[in-house]
Amino acid sequence: MKIAPLVRSYELMVDQADEAFRKVKEEHGPSMACEVHCSDCCHAVFGLFLIEAVNLKRQFDQLDVQMKKEVLLRCNETERGIKRLEEKIEMQCGDQEMQASILARERIRCPLLDENNECVLYDHRPITCRVYGMLTKIQGKARVCGKARFEKGVSYPIFDLDGVYRNLYGLSRELLEEAGADESEKAALLISVPRAITATLDELIRETFG
Fold first, then answer.
1. Do residues 204 and 196 make contact, with C-beta atoms less than 8 angstroms apart?
2. Which of 188, 157, 192, 207 has its CA nearest to residue 82?
């Protein structure tokens, strides 16, 4: 299975996201709260498209043994937090607005965040993490980090995360088709960070279309 070309396409998206963030930081730095050891985005809850999960897994496997062991231990607590969140959401009986509100408020520590509040895979973090401190468009609405200082009534650049998600879906669908999946539309399914790094590459792909 040819994963490398798809990963390269993903890396181009990463570069574009980094450039967008750099420009906003350069032009509107005082409005952004991003700084070393700030870990607000590392407690936000979101899922990974298959192409992101595969890339994260490949990079995680290159960490040294002790570092991987520490991350895997933290995965247990993260998974418990995700389970509690799922139960809260299920209790809302299909109320999508309330479910979205719960999801937005929930804070669960990412297992890749170490004791020094540093990401052990910082250079390979997902695009959502890379653009968290700037204004983003999600489901057609502007979203921003709660610590940011963007002013109301002022026009700022908005990063189109909706468009990025469409492209991530497309790459994930191609990956499933490359793997021989009959139901490649399941590329829309999202994978948690703990699952992405604890499963094998074959398991990630199989579970997505299994």
1. yes
2. 192
Which residue in 98, 104, 97 sits closest to 45, CA to CA?
104
Domain count within the chain? 1
How many whole angstroms separate alpha carbon 98 and alpha carbon 178?
38
- Residue for token pair 């990463």: 14
- Whole domain around residue 62: which residue ranges? 4-73+107-209
CA-CA distance, 204 to 210, in Å (whole number)? 10
Q: What six digits make up the tokens of 163?
A: 């468009």
Per-residue model confidence as pLDDT tens digits over 98-143: 777 777 778 899 999 999 999 999 999 999 999 999 999 998 989 8
141-143/159-160 β-pairing: unpaired
Location of structure tokens 């002013």: 151
Q: Is residue 114 part of a domain?
A: yes
Beta strands per DSSP E along 43-164: 136-138, 141-143, 159-160
Q: What's the distance, CA 172 to chain centroid?
A: 14
Residues 24-64 pLDDT 10s: 999 999 999 998 889 999 998 889 999 999 999 999 999 99
The DSSP 8-state label assigned to residue 131 in this structure reads T
- Residue 139 covered by a domain: yes
